[in-house]
């Protein structure tokens, strides 16, 4: 009898050990998180986009800032655009080099605000430059009206003081994914319209549209319906602005290089300084 009880006890012990081991294995496997793909190291972090980022990546090229013809230099007014990438900007040096206007990135989507915005927006104003702000659009994250509200509430306003330019909407290749933000041409046009209409409601001014002809053709189907009211800021790093998107017969501003002095991104306003001031007042 003693032998039988010993055998039964050993069998029960082995059963308990087996059950405990199986349970431990289940608990361990449940506590180990599932493996997810590592983030693409080539995809930038949200909020880091800046005006012209997609132009460099997709249109390529760049122009010698000193190669503009004397006629262009005489008839147009030099400007720059900045974002958090420039940090603290030497506005006095820019003014001394002939720069008379500047745009600063204010917002992106509905969650990013440029941490350098205050200095980069007030700096040109106090130095004597005419200043404005721009919004980097991310149509895949929220609606156009919502992003216009966010922009207007965080630096995208306008005042009729002859020193503040209307806000600009930056429409270019998506640095975080699909070039057209996953939208069809008609859906993209609708998104842009929602932004522009809301911005006009909030500020009383029609926003400037910044874009590259190739992106506009690819992602809006070369829609020409905004040209009647919204000034064009064309992006092309070459010796000329090249063909313009449908509807616009001329540009108001042209981003012509990413390798300018002091600040890389340099632009031309298509007119003299007094015309720039008139444009600012609306």
From TrEMBL:
It comes from the Bacteria. SUPFAM superfamilies: (Trans)glycosidases. Residues 1-34 form the signal peptide. The keyword Hydrolase applies. Keywords: Glycosidase, Hydrolase, Signal. Pfam families: Glyco_hydro_25 (PF01183). InterPro entries: GH, Glyco_hydro_25, Glyco_hydro_fam25_subgr. The keyword Chaperone does not apply. Gene3D superfamilies: Glycosidases (3.20.20.80). Coiled coil: none annotated. Belongs to the glycosyl hydrolase 25 family. This is Lysozyme.
């Amino acid at each position: 009898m003693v032998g039988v009880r010993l055998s039964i006890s050993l069998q029960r012990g082995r059963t308990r050990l087996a059950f405990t081991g199986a349970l431990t294995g289940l608990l361990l496997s449940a506590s180990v998180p599932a493996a997810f793909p590592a983030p693409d190291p080539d995809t930038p972090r949200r909020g880091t986009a800046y005006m012209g980022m997609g132009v460099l990546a997709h249109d390529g090229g760049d122009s010698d800032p000193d190669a503009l013809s004397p006629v262009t230099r005489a008839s147009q007014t030099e400007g720059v655009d900045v974002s958090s990438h420039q940090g603290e900007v030497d506005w006095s040096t820019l003014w001394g080099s002939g720069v008379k206007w500047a745009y600063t990135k204010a917002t992106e989507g509905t969650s990013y605000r440029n941490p350098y915005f205050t200095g980069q927006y007030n700096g040109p104003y106090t130095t004597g430059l005419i200043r404005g702000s721009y919004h980097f659009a991310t149509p895949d994250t929220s609606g156009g009206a919502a992003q216009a509200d966010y922009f207007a509430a965080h630096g995208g306003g306008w005042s009729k003081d002859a020193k503040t330019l209307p806000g600009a909407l930056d429409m270019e290749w998506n640095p975080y994914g699909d070039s057209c933000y996953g939208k069809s041409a008609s859906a993209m046009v609708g998104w842009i319209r929602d932004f522009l209409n809301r911005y006009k409601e909030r500020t009383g001014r029609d926003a400037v549209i910044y874009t590259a002809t190739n992106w506009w053709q690819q992602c809006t189907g070369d829609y020409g319906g905004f040209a009647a009211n919204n000034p064009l800021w064309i992006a092309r790093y070459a010796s000329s602005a090249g063909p313009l998107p449908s509807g616009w017969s001329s540009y108001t501003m042209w981003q012509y290089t990413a390798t300018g002095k002091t600040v890389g991104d340099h632009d031309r306003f298509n007119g003299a300084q007094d015309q720039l001031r008139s444009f600012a007042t609306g």
